[in-house]
Design goal:
Elements lengths: L1 E5 L5 E8 L5 E8 L5 E6 L10 H8 L3 E6 L18 H17 L5 E6 L1 H12 L6 E5 L12 H12 L18 H9 L9 H17 L7 E6 L8 H9 L4 E6 L12 H15 L4
Parallel strand pairs: 4-5, 4-6, 6-7, 7-8, 8-9
Antiparallel strand pairs: 1-2, 2-3, 3-5
Helix pairs in contact: 1-8, 2-3, 3-6, 4-6
Protein name: Gll0778 protein
Pfam family, one: Hydrolase_4
GO cellular component, one term: membrane
Length: 288
């Protein structure tokens, strides 16, 4: 199913459902442009959704790129219980469906994956698994290291819980002030019924292990990679961004933002972040 409206930027804002290999309906918000040079596939963070990236999409549309925002299973308008997975590979099943749709509809055009927080972990693992399908990678506040949230007994509880009661809900709150300093964005997050803070032990442990895998396998990542991070991050350990950058072998860029919190694309300087992304895309794909 697909329906759409014309946005102020001239792009078409559409809503579409894809089917995952294991039978789930996955929702995608599409900001399409006529004859796009390429597509930015957005993988949102834990508990949020791909429909939040209209401002980013507007900036990209101005230079000929379209944006697709994927709701992974259990998030946004996609099927699945909130934050319920058995294995992190299930998220790769979701991105595979989106990449296949892109390949069918826009063969031969570059596909760049932007992953935010947990989505950056998914994006890296996808790029390692399907390097022929992904031409570039952007990691925003990547959750490669979350040991700041798993200190002492918290880590023991998470791993023990993943074994004994993997799908028990151990937290449900989503604090907007922890991810952005912008009052307007805080209000919008609080009012968004599709943003959810449900947390289960299995997801936490799978993310922790997947982030470590990203660092371990980073030397194999051969595509252009942009990393955007802030040392003021309260959600993830920002040192993971530096560690990942240090291990990358090829075209790599790391940009640090001062006085910003975790959700850089919904912060006070979000326009600057969008400009960094569009500039990076133009440099690497100058035909756009």
């Amino acid at each position: 199913m697909c329906y759409g409206t014309q946005s102020m930027t001239g792009s078409i804002v559409a809503s579409e459902y894809l089917k995952s290999a294991d039978g789930l309906r996955l929702h995608i918000t599409r900001w399409d442009v006529n004859e796009p040079f390429g597509t930015l596939l957005v993988l949102p963070g834990k508990g949020e959704h791909g429909g939040r990236y209209g401002q980013l999409a507007a900036g990209l549309a101005a230079c000929g790129w379209q944006t697709w925002g994927l709701d992974p299973r259990g998030q946004g308008l996609s099927d699945g219980a909130r934050s319920r997975i058995g294995s992190y590979d299930e998220f790769l099943t979701d991105i595979a469906a989106a990449l296949e749709a892109l390949g069918r509809e826009f063969p031969g055009r570059p596909a760049v994956v932007l992953g935010y927080s947990m989505g950056a972990v998914t994006g890296v693992l996808a790029a390692l698994r399907w390097p022929e399908r992904i031409q570039g990678l952007i990691c925003v506040s990547p959750a490669f290291v979350i040991d700041n949230r798993l200190r002492g007994l918290a880590k023991v509880f998470a791993y023990l819980g993943s074994w004994l009661f993997p799908q028990r809900i151990v937290a449900s709150g989503y604090n907007p002030a922890a991810v952005t300093n912008c009052p307007l964005e805080q209000q919008q997050i609080a009012a968004d019924p599709l943003i959810d803070g449900t947390t289960r032990p299995r997801l936490v442990v799978e993310l922790h292990k997947a982030g470590a895998q990203c660092l371990r396998l980073a030397p194999r990542l051969a595509i252009p990679t942009l990393i955007l991070a802030t040392a003021f991050d309260r959600i993830v350990d920002a040192r993971g961004a530096q560690a990942f950058y240090d291990r990358l072998p090829g075209d790599r860029t790391l940009h640090w933002y001062d006085d910003q919190l975790h959700d850089l694309l919904h912060e006070r300087r979000s326009a600057e972040v969008t400009g960094e992304i569009t500039g990076w895309l133009r440099e690497r794909w100058p035909g756009a």
